[in-house]
Amino acid sequence: MIYPKTSLRSISITNCRAFYKKFRKSIGFLFFFFSFSVYSATESQIELIQQAAEEYIIAEIEWPVGGQLEAKAANIDSRIFATDCPSPLSSSSSSTNPSSSNITVLVECPEDNWRVYVPVRLIRTGPQVTLTSPISRGQLISEYDVTLSMVDLQRFRRQGFTSIDAVIGAKAKKNLRAGEVIEDRDICVVCRNETVTIKAMKSGMTITTKGVALTDGSHGEQIRVKNSKSNRIIEGRVSGISEVTVVF
Q1: What does the domain layout of the chain look like in residue ranges?
Q2: With 56 labelled, which of 116, 135, 157, 214 sits at a CA distance of 20 to 30 A?
Q3: SAF domain location, by residue (predicted)?
């Protein structure tokens, strides 16, 4: 079949336009890929950003007494823009609550005008008094029943004890299992409605009498007691097993 010259010319122009569109798309893709590769953060840059976030947490967050604080930065998308900052990276955060499980840290390079928000996971461990054997309700706790164990404080958020002396001689208010962390609500050195010895101290003199505890109390805590003789209600500090001291 013989085509008119005008038809062949139209076909040629159409093919050229299609080729040009494909070529332009290919060039655009290559340009995008090249730009992506140039501006994406390198592995070493990401590591420096994570390190800066972790070091900020370690320096700013209060450490648990006798314990440890660990900080683990989350993974960072390598597609972020970053450079080899000419000065040390700057880190900051709007929260420094040590009880938080995660804190977001802003890491930035002011000179090169870029910033990255990095979530950091906190792991706080500290000593807590735990039981080495089961304890029954009403049983007195001895030094052989307890030990100090390192506990994840982010998971254990209740009030425990960091000193074994604080629980020795205390009475269990419920059945407790071996390995369990002792909480302040689990025990009482002086228990409510229990007969106690009241030691009244004044000017070097000590007068001893009996009374009834109106509230539970641990070592050093101030509780209300009722004098069995005068029926007077006074406040004193727990000074021993079933003992309350009042200083006038």
Answers
A1: 43-124, 126-188, 195-247
A2: 157
A3: 126-188
- What is the CATH architecture of 195-247? Roll (2.30)
Rounded Cα–Cα distance for residues 161 and 146 (Å): 11
Pseudo-torsion of CA 77, 78, 81, 84, nearest 10°?
Answer: 130
DSSP secondary structure code for residue 94 in this structure: S
Tokens 């660990």 correspond to 70
The pTM for the full model equals 0.59
Q: How many residues does the chain have?
A: 248
Burial class (CB in 10 A: 0-12, 13-18, 19+), 161: buried
- Cα–Cα distance for residue pair 96/177, rounded to 1 Å: 35
Distance CA 122, CA 95 (A): 13
CB 65 within 8 A of CB 126: yes
